[in-house]
Amino acid sequence: MTTANALPSLKAVMAGVAIFPADAPIWLGKIGDPVWPFYKEGDELYQGPSTSSIAWLDYIYGKGYTFEHVNSMHRGRYTYCLTSEIVSDLKVAAAIYAKFPRLVKHAKSAKEGVDPRTVKARTDELAKVFSSAIAISQARYGRTITKLSEISLGLLKEAIAQYPGRGAALKRALKLISDPVVQSNLSEPLRWQLVDIEKGSIPWPKTIDGPGIATLTDVHFLFIQDQCIQYILRFKAMLGLTIHCTDVPRKPEWIEEIDLDAYAEAVDAYLNNKVGASGLQARFGIGQRDLEAFICDAQNAAILLILLLTGMRSSETKFLYSDALDFNNGYWFLKSKVVKGRSKSAPVAEGWLAIDITRDAFDVLEYFCACTGNKYLFSSPFERFAKDGRGYALGSLNIKLCRWLERIDVGGVYADWTFSVHQCRETLVFQLAKQQVGLQFISMQLKHFHSRFYGMPNEVTASYGNYRKELMASVTSRMAEARETALQDLFGEDSRFAGGGGEAHKARTDAFFAGKAYFGAARERYIRNLANSGVKIQPTSIGSCTKNFALPVLDKEPPCYGDFECDPDCESHVITERAGQALVARHDRLLAKADAETNKAYKVIWIGQAEKIGRHINKLGLGGHHVD
């Protein structure tokens, strides 16, 4: 027998006689409450009271009413004007969808019910379209609507026709409330059926997808990567921590800028409460503000580099703990978990490949966690902020890292740019695709592997958290874009080349396009179509090989066949301007090696290699600068 304060039985819902008592539990609240919270403060996925709950009074009095969010009330894109009777019916539909999803056609069923965020998204769409229908009825026909049963199919079509949101999301929401099981439990039957929504001639708004989140340009990517690496390596060198990434030279100006030994003692004493803020100046000659800026530089750099080189979503960083680094099958991984499309109760078991510099970034953040006792890797390095044991709230990383980039960007590289965590994810895909890393690895790193090879995520999953943008600007489109960029570099009209085959390649391609009378935009279109056809180029360590390996080898296979150790002076080797950036980095590293070499015989080898690479850099006209 059902108790007074319990949800109705499955049998009652199926029979259409379900009663939802006001004190029946629903997530973290009760059916009769004006707010249905589903995450409480302190939960990893909590994003404030409005985002982490359904505020029913907002659908009557306007967005922001319940929690008195003035900005939400003034800037709201949609008008809400539902009645208490309509809200009661929406509560019934939401409760059935949340707790009895197997009874609803097209619903994603799960043992614990539908994700509360999905229920909220459905309810938001219904509140928007029904509010629009109420407004149309009053303005055009002078009729006041107080119940859902008073909305005709014709009026609903009018509201749908002028709906400013995504048609696909709205259709899913209307399918929910039009479902026979849901309808039978509403206060009164609706004046349309599920078949009207599925097969009727309804003018659904088109779902227009933008180009997605723009990736960082090469200049931005290289700048941010270099800045992060230098701050991380400086901090680890200062503390005497083991540096895993030994391929990147540390900048000599570190020693000139600051006294690393003094900062090492000050950081240890300050973070471990051996000396207070007031005693820093007297004991170490360093003020609190300067020391905290030094610490924050290392912390922000470590966070940003992990985001940039793992491609984690914001929600995934919330489950990144101080013991996340794991060695498995010969590789290092950062362990967290995917929440999108999976149960919130899933264990921390997913792994994001961590290269050496990512491990260095992890070590820096782990050090701060050891000082504060906070288990969250992305958390404040200062005990006064980390004492509650929480990590950074979702959304706060964007603000934090934007401010840091603004501070360190003395050259104005980021003057007209706004950072977002998701842009790191998009940029990682783009950079990996440009290097022709396989789709399987990219999908695995982004944690799409569990779903992308079985079917694309549905429209509802894509309707929140900016996932729609990620979906439409997905791995495959990024790879196509990267292919086009690579081909434009190789066949573009104004491209410059180095390498032993550079001059011959330039003459050959220009003659080909001249023979077809393809110049300017026509040449670009041809290259774009070539990229879309899936054509591939043969990459080398720093360029491209133009040798046609499909032709039979007349004498013997070249010594480079099957590896990437190509001779830059080979007659088949072409180095583009973009690939030349690798040469600049190699050239700088060789000179640094030569400077550090004490054996004169070895020093000559480093200098000789630097001079050889320098000849190619001069052909490209790069000098010491990166190209965009």
Structure, described:
The structure is a single chain. By secondary structure, the protein is mainly alpha-helical. Strand 9 and strand 10 form a beta hairpin. The strands form four sheets. A four-stranded antiparallel β-sheet has the order 8-11-10-9. Strands 5-6-7 form a three-stranded antiparallel β-sheet. Strands 1-2 form a two-stranded antiparallel ribbon. Helix content is 49%, strand content 5%. It is globular and about 90 Å long. It is built from 27 helices and eleven strands. Mean pLDDT is 84; it is low at 449-473. It has helices spanning 10-15, 58-61, 70-75, 84-99, 116-141, 153-161, 167-178, 180-183, 194-199, 218-239, 253-257, 260-271, 280-284, 288-310, 314-317, 356-372, 383-386, 396-408, 421-434, 439-446, 449-452, 467-472, 475-491, 502-515, 521-532, 580-596, 600-620; strands spanning 25-26, 29-30, 35-37, 53-55, 325-328, 331-336, 350-353, 497-498, 538-539, 544-545, 573-576.
What general form does the structure show?
globular
Largest sheet, spatial ordering of strands = 8-11-10-9
Number of strands: 11
- Spans of at least 5 consecutive residues whose pLDDT stays below 50 are 449-473
* Count of runs of 4 or more consecutive helical residues: 27
Describe the sheet with the most strands.
Answer: 4 strands, antiparallel
Beta-strand fraction estimate: 5-15%
The share of residues in helices is: 40-55%
Overall pLDDT confidence: 84
Distance between the termini: 71 Å
SSE-based structural type = mainly alpha
Radius of gyration: 30 Å
InterPro entries: DNA_brk_join_enz, Integrase-like_cat_sf, Integrase_catalytic
Keywords: DNA recombination
Domain Tyr recombinase: 250-477
Protein name: Tyr recombinase domain-containing protein
